[in-house]
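Protocol step 4 of 6: structure prediction from sequence.
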Amino acid sequence: GQVIHIDEAAYQAWNQAWLRQLLLAGERTAIVLNDILDASGAKKLSNKAAVHTKADEEKEAEYRKIDEDRKNNPAMAAHNTKLSPVRFNPSVLLTNLAIATVTVPLFLVIVNYGLNPQVWMSAVLAMLEPEKPVEGAPAGRNVKRSQ
């Protein structure tokens, strides 16, 4: 295949068109959601407390049984009132640190350079170029001193 080069103006035009399409899609989604949650339909949502299913009755019976068990077993009630001690888990810490070592630098690079591929390429090329000595400045340890 052939490499296609896109200049900054073409990229910005594509970016603006893409952003416009994305905003239109969001507007259309908002219109559909507003139609779904129209005022007449939203009135029905407030009646959810009046709906009582068999699952609700079973859950209430389960809660009553748990309350009776707590009353009959004081040790169980005392255990539930204590706060659980904080546990240190090294594997969780290492997992979070590994995730942070990837996401934090990536986030900082994106914040500093943006998402434009041309800017990324120029930054990478600038990092790969050898440093050029500045005229009149010493070049490092290999400088001969004149007396």
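Step 5 (inspection) to follow. The chain has a mean pLDDT of 79.
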